[in-house]
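Progress against Task 2.4 (sequence-to-structure conversion) is shown through the following example record, which the project officer requested during the mid-term review.
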Amino acid sequence: MFVGEDNRQRAGTMPKIKTNRVQYPSGWELIEPTLREIEAKMREAENDPHDGKRKCEGLWPIFRIAHQKSRYIYDLYYRRKEISKELYEFCLEQGYADRNLIAKWKKPGYERLCCLRCIQPRDHNFNTTCVCRVPKHLREEKVIECVHCGCRGCASGD
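Structure tokens generated for the chain above:
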């Protein structure tokens, strides 16, 4: 016993040890290889040098891969109905997909949204949305790129 430590000992009370063991729901083995492959692409994009690129262009591949991963899980659950609700919720809780982006995809007019920054008015001039949200037939310039994520057009009418 140390000086000043309480002399009473509690029998049978040990602190719980947290483990990293995760209970994977059924069906995980079907989507795991694809998610691992996408995560490998993400690591490669994060480690890729961005010499000669603008500051914002270095993040574009990361945004694209995050979008791809979220879209993959969204399509499996809502379009193809190949995974269970339990597995879908597990993927969202573990961070395999962006819950907020998927919530936007379910709303009319946002089915093809590239990232959440493109609809944030505070991130753009004149408190509007991004130029990639403008339908192609209304654009003055036919080829554009979003400054935030590199998107070339995610308006629903395209």
